[in-house]
Write a structure and sequence with these properties.
CATH superfamily of the largest domain: ATPase, nucleotide binding domain
Shape: globular
Strand content: 25-35%
Number of helices: 7
CATH topology of the largest domain: Nucleotidyltransferase, domain 5
Strand order of the largest sheet: 3-2-1-4-5
Distance between the termini: 44 Å
Number of domains: 2
Radius of gyration: 18 Å
Oligomer: single chain
Low-confidence stretches: 217-230
Largest sheet: 5 strands, mixed
CATH architecture of the largest domain: 2-Layer Sandwich
């Protein structure tokens, strides 16, 4: 199987290619340059892998939640490349990718994934490894940090920059271990996507939709003029 994955949901940009045995990956801090850097890095990765879009069995991407603009970029690029190359797509939740990264990096099997959502909120979900796949313990949500609750059983591992944005969060939740440096890396997205491709769990470009969780991402003009804040 040949699979290309990418993520632009955070300040980091990552792209990964795998044929099931070897990996070619790129990662860089992109800040606000995702739209300029994503396609060139995809080209670099495919060139190093000596592959092309037309040879891929699927494209996977971080579908959110995350940066509103970044998620839209990933979704739009995936739709365009998938449609043009007639390649099926696999949208992957970025919080699940955070759980996968915690498993790959630390061997964590019960993960509380937490991303800084700005606006004094975090994106959060809890997952546990059920053999070879992740089972959702708590659904992805956007919450104020004070409203985040850890699952009541097992020893949970914290993953994501929500724990650096709110340094007291891990302590309040009683998490013995966490890694705030972890991101929804494209490699982790690819690992989640591979069994889904094998099972035929893919979508066409028109159905590759972003996952926002937060329904409001901006204030109206009237609200801004009134001094309202999200």
């Amino acid at each position: 199987m040949k699979l290309l994955a990418f993520d632009t949901s955070t300040l980091s940009l990552s792209v990964a290619y795998t044929d099931g045995e070897r990996w070619v990956t790129r990662e860089e801090p992109a800040a606000q340059a995702h739209s300029q850097r994503l396609i060139p890095i995809i080209d670099q990765v495919l060139a190093e892998a000596r592959s092309s879009l037309g040879e891929l069995d699927a494209l996977a991407f971080g579908a959110g939640p995350g940066s509103f603009t970044g998620v839209r970029i990933a979704c739009g690029v995936a739709q365009g490349l998938g449609l043009g190359a007639e390649v099926p797509l696999v949208p992957v939740c970025t919080l699940e990718a955070l759980a996968q990264n915690a498993y790959d990096t630390h061997g964590a099997t019960h993960v509380l994934a937490c991303l800084d959502a700005r606006m004094r909120e975090v994106y959060v979900a809890a997952y546990w490894m059920d053999g070879t796949r992740w089972t959702i313990e708590t659904e992805p949500a956007v919450l104020h940090p004070a409203d985040v609750m850890a699952p009541a059983v097992e020893s949970w591992f914290g993953s994501g920059d929500g724990f650096s944005a709110y340094p007291d969060l891990a302590t309040r939740l009683g998490l013995a271990r966490f890694d705030a440096a972890l991101v929804p890396h494209a490699r982790s997205i690819a690992r989640i996507a591979m069994p889904r491709v094998e099972a035929g769990d893919t979508v066409t470009a028109s159905r590759a939709l972003p996952v926002y969780v937060r329904h409001r991402v901006a204030l109206t003009t009237a609200e801004r003029n009134a001094g309202a804040r999200l």
